[in-house]
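SAMPLE LOG
Freezer: B-3
Tube label: C17
Construct: single chain, 457 aa
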Amino acid sequence: MTSRFHLISLGCSKNTVDSESMAKILQADGYRSCSDASQADILIVNTCGFIGPAKEESYEVLSALAAKKGKEQFLIAAGCLTQRYGAEVVARVPGIDGVLGTRRWMDILMLVNQIRQRTLPEPLYHLPGEAQAVGIDEADVPRVAIQGPSAYLKIADGCRRPCAFCAIPLIKGTAVSRPMENIISEARALRDQGIREVILIAQDSTDYGHDLGIKNGLAVLLRRLVRSVPGLDWVRVLYAYPGYVTDELIETIASHKALIPYLDIPLQHAHPATLRRMRRPANIEWVHRTLEKMRAAMPELALRTTFIVGYPGETEEEFTALMEFAQEIRFDRVGVFTFSHEPGTTSEPLGDPIPMELKKQRRDELMTLQQRISLEKNQAWVGRTLDVLVEGHGEVEDSGEPIAIGRSYRDAPEIDGLVFIEGQPPIGEITPVRVNGAMTYDLTGAVETSSPILISL
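STRUCTURE (predicted):
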């Protein structure tokens, strides 16, 4: 009888890629994926442990599976939460049979076999002690996660940045870049499968190649990619670190049609004093100069960023500076998070002195400002034509009229807006759409049947 596994992936797209890779390893050994947990032999949760709410979600999912687990089923807790907290996770969720960390996810099959063969009921742990991302390309399995006509492709793992609030180096270890040839080979395979959008991801994509001795490694990779894999439609890059968006990288993105003019550059704040306490780059003048260069080279550039409000010591003056910065720069997309106090990070000694009520108030103020900006940005597209990657079909709730749902180059999957299209052009096609309506985050339009000047990418 074929063994089955049920895998739940929580957290970010980087986790999604790891989950898909684990699934491929199990499938290569004859296991079959199962959407119904009650019908699976192996239950796996690839957890997130980045901030408090993500940890609680992971505990809730693990607890729910453990409570319903049958006598012949095994439950494995994998990923960020277990890498960081290990025995604490097992103590809080009785019923876990195995623990697998982030640094050796490629050993999932080995752990499953060990659990099946064990003679004692105690959970088995597989958690390397060194804070080092290892085995990035040991398993012969692509580091990709396909979602409809798009796919995430991981180019590196871990992070070497010193951000005081962030637990990623504790969880993932230092930055390790994947071999360029592996990335190119996987991109070529995705193209050949009909994937229209390849999204390159890493904790810090602009650090790609540093450990390999490659200067301006991301720019080098992008040029190699478009040259070696002709026919790629869209290549999107997530995420850029302030201070490492070089002139060479800007020129590279601006010079190649497949490299869409979209950049997510998490700035976290805009007041130098706050940034210094965060141990982040605090040169705001660099930000202004670099964004000016990018917008000059790519007039249709879509910019996304994230901010943290309520960081320890954030004064009204510092928060006001952040508001003024957001108003001046006018990002296309912004995510705002309240500070999460994380034990073990270098910000731990600062405590969590700002009341949650004030944090939420500041988040709401900043999001209200950004919503106005986002709406104005979207309204500026009305009457213009955008290429849209069609991802699904549906119908208007009231009238039942058919619609299609897709994304333009301005919209990264899961975090940005959508384009709602009259009619139902084929899923997977990149279709010119004449924009006829704008909302805070989304656009509406109809398939362009004439021949206007397209904003093509």
